């Protein structure tokens, strides 16, 4: 195969890859926000909030992502709620990963020693200050490796949005394979692009994890320690 032919195949796939990156960026940011909100509801002192968060998490984790995408894109229009494929894909990914991240955040928060909470109360800190300055930084260090794994899963699960006819990497591969009848080559290139995207993301998460584990970063001895700024 010549370079010109290869570029002819890569051009539509790279265009689809940009939409995959857009799907990932939008879904990851909104998933983290939703996960934090649901996590705070899950550990709230109000029974109604705890129950609602638990039901949401159980329903989402108990059903496949593909079924959730079909429900949003094909089922909700019967109730009068119609949305574009890209928006439906983002919504499905956010609802799905938000539930998993909520439990991840809850585990990280509950891993913080109770003495930290008592010390922050003794200092007169509000609940919001305790969560922002004391609890979340320590919880983040605990859950960060798992958070990176979820990010990699999210990149690959964006491929499921192809069933909604959203033009992203997998959909671009399907269209190209159907037009050229070169399924082996096309899907090999699709897999290679996913591998590159995941490798780049893994690199950044490894670098960030090393930063979070710098001696003195969280215990007050480093200049950039967030606790020292109180």
UniProtKB/TrEMBL annotation:
- Which keywords has UniProt assigned to this entry? Amino-acid transport, Cell membrane, Membrane, Transmembrane, Transmembrane helix, Transport
Per UniProt, residues of the ABC transmembrane type-1 domain are: 17-205
Q: Which GO terms describe its cellular component?
A: ATP-binding cassette (ABC) transporter complex
User: Which is a Pfam family this sequence falls into?
Assistant: BPD_transp_1
**What NCBIfam families does the record point to?**
HEQRo_perm_3TM (TIGR01726)
Record family assignment: Belongs to the binding-protein-dependent transport system permease family. HisMQ subfamily.
* Cited function: Part of the binding-protein-dependent transport system for glutamine; probably responsible for the translocation of the substrate across the membrane.
- Record-given protein name: Putative glutamine transport system permease protein GlnP
């Amino acid at each position: 195969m010549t370079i010109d032919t290869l570029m002819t195949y890569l051009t539509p796939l790279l265009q689809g890859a940009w939409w995959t990156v857009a799907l990932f960026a939008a879904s990851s940011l909104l998933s983290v926000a939703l996960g934090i909100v649901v996590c705070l509801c899950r550990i709230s002192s109000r029974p109604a909030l705890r129950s609602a968060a638990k039901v949401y998490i159980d329903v989402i984790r108990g059903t496949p992502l593909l079924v959730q995408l079909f429900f949003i894109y094909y089922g909700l229009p019967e109730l009068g709620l119609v949305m574009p494929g890209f928006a439906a894909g983002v919504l499905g990914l956010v609802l799905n990963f938000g539930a998993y991240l909520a439990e991840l955040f809850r585990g990280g928060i509950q891993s913080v020693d109770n003495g930290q909470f008592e010390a922050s109360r003794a200092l007169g800190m509000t609940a919001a200050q305790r969560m922002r300055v004391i609890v979340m930084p320590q919880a983040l260090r605990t859950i960060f490796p798992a958070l990176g794994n979820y990010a990699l899963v999210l990149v690959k699960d964006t491929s499921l949005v192809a069933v909604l006819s959203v033009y992203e990497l997998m959909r671009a591969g399907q269209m190209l394979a159907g037009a050229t009848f070169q399924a082996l080559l096309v899907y090999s290139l699709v897999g290679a692009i996913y591998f590159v995207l995941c490798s780049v993301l893994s690199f950044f998460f490894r670098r960030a994890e090393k930063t979070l584990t710098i001696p003195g970063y969280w215990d007050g001895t480093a200049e950039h320690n967030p606790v020292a700024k109180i």
